[in-house]
């Protein structure tokens, strides 16, 4: 009997031991989470996610309850001069019951609304990433504003100040002027986001605070012409004006994107900046208020199948160097015009935009390995990056322009122009101006058209275009093949008549 009682006591003591140990582990885990939240900046880490990958799929309502506190509504105001819009007064009727036709004219120019200073207000969203009150949002939400107000899910409102911003990626960092700690959003890994994965958007669309929409990731790596570093996540979770700067969450409760852009004519098409891009830029915004980018000093273009074949390369890859700026890093490293940059700092370069992103994201003064495809083989070079400045950008090579005999202004097409015009390749000459009544105008050529053939011969640049015209001397008319948006056209341009 005594042995039995001793055994029961042992079991109870062991159970109590495990309980105390469990409480200690839980306490330590909570402490670790808080410390990681406080060190989010310096370590670039994120909070422990709301849900682990192996957990059962939670309901959206459970997620929203946990995520809402870290999402903020942002309202801004700036002082502008002008005539604020006010509802018009009803048109007065004359003694015969007719509307006065001059009422609108007199109201517009002599009404009770003279030009004056007034506050123009706008709305946006953001999310807190640090217990001290640092908030991530879009640059266009807070740009050129005099006043920033942040409202939390608990209805508390605070003033906020701009810490740093970057117009090239439309990213901004602001700070709440209030005492923390504030609830913090966990930052995820956008590289591991899969197409078809569920996502949630929380924001302030049209002023409807903390609205929640759900959808899936429709695509990744979208280029929408917003800037040189386009790499957007596309989602069909509803994003509307006022959602800008708000978070896009995955099903684990981690921020994977910053809702940034919409297509006004489309439904179910929204774009979010990948959070991994944001992680790379935030420390610079906090420390210096701006982003410093690496500079190579080259002009580049995409490599298509024809170019790859002509350069003796198998499949198209890398970025083709069209010019090298004298005295800049690439020139000092030995890069030559006609080289195809295929690897940068050990990373494969797939295309022009990827090279732009990795160069811009490399710390200033870094010495990196560069691999170029030259004369049928890879050549390894070493380059030391300097800082990109507005002066360097202004002095970089620009597309050539030419006014020709048919009354058009033409320019060489660059990869950026090709992207803006929705072309698959940077081939042809773009029409930037058409003189009214000219031969080109009569033929139906419009600004934005890309001439890719003259008399059924390909045109890749201005030099080739001029050669085709020289060859066609003495002919009264020429057949142009132009690309216009998503279709091609043959147009006859006459030299006389």
From TrEMBL:
Task: Name the reaction it catalyses.
Answer: Acts on substrates that are at least partially unfolded. The cleavage site P1 residue is normally between a pair of hydrophobic residues, such as Val-|-Val
Q: Which UniProt keywords apply?
A: Hydrolase, Periplasm, Protease, Repeat, Serine protease, Signal, Stress response
Pfam families, per the entry: PDZ, PDZ_2, Trypsin_2
Chief place of localization: periplasm
Q: Where is the PDZ domain?
A: 290-376, 407-486
What EC number(s) are associated with this protein in UniProt?
3.4.21.107
Residues the record lists as binding substrate: 140, 170, 242-244
Report the subcellular localization: Periplasm
Which Gene Ontology MF annotations are present? serine-type endopeptidase activity
What is annotated as the active site? 140 (charge relay system), 170 (charge relay system), 244 (charge relay system)
Biological processes per GO annotation: protein quality control for misfolded or incompletely synthesized proteins
The name of this protein is Probable periplasmic serine endoprotease DegP-like
């Amino acid at each position: 009997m005594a042995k039995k009682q001793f055994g029961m006591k042992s079991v109870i003591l062991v159970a109590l031991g495990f309980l105390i140990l469990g409480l200690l582990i839980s306490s330590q885990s909570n402490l670790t989470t808080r410390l990681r939240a406080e060190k989010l900046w310096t370590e670039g880490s994120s909070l422990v996610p709301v849900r682990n990958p192996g957990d059962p799929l939670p309901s959206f309502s459970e997620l929203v309850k946990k995520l809402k506190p870290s999402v903020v509504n942002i309202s801004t105001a700036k002082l502008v001069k002008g005539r604020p819009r006010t509802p018009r007064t009803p048109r007065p009727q004359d003694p015969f019951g007719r509307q006065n036709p001059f009422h609108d004219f007199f109201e517009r120019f002599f009404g009770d609304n003279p030009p004056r200073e007034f506050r123009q207000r706008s709305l946006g969203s953001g999310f807190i990433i640090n217990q001290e009150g640092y908030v991530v949002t879009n640059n266009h939400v807070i740009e050129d504003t005099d006043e920033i107000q942040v409202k939390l899910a608990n209805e508390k409102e605070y003033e906020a100040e701009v810490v740093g911003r970057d117009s090239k990626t439309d990213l901004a960092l602001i700070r709440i002027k209030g005492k923390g700690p504030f609830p913090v959003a966990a930052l995820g890994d956008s590289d591991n986001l899969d197409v078809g994965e569920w996502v949630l958007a929380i924001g302030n669309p049209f002023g409807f605070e903390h609205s929640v929409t759900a959808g899936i990731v429709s695509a990744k790596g979208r280029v929408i012409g917003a800037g040189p570093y386009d790499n957007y996540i596309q989602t069909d979770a509803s994003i509307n004006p006022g959602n800008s700067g708000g978070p896009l969450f995955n099903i684990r409760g981690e921020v994977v994107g910053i809702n940034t852009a919409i297509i006004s004519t489309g439904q179910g098409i929204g774009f979010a900046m990948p959070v991994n891009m944001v992680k790379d830029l935030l420390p610079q915004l906090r420390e210096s208020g701006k982003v410093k980018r690496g500079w190579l000093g080259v002009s580049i273009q995409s490599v298509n199948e024809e170019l790859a074949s002509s350069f003796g390369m198998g499949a198209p890859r890398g970025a083709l160097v069209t010019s090298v700026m004298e005295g800049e890093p690439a020139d000092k490293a030995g890069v030559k015009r006609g080289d195809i940059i295929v690897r940068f700092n050990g990373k494969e370069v797939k295309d022009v935009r990827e090279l732009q992103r990795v160069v811009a994201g490399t710390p200033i003064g870094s010495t990196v390995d560069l691999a170029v495809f030259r004369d049928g083989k890879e050549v390894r070079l070493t380059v030391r990056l300097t800082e990109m400045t507005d002066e360097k950008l202004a002095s970089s090579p620009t597309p050539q322009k030419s006014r020709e005999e048919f009354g058009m202004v033409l320019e060489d097409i660059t990869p950026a122009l090709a992207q803006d015009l929705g072309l698959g390749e940077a081939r042809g000459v773009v029409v930037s101006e058409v003189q009214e009544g000219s031969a080109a105008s009569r033929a139906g050529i419009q600004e934005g058209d890309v001439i890719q053939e003259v008399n059924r011969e390909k045109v890749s640049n201005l030099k080739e275009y001029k050669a085709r015209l020289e060859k066609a001397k003495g002919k009264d008319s020429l057949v142009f093949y132009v690309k216009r948006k998503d279709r091609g056209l043959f147009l006859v341009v006459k030299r006389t008549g």
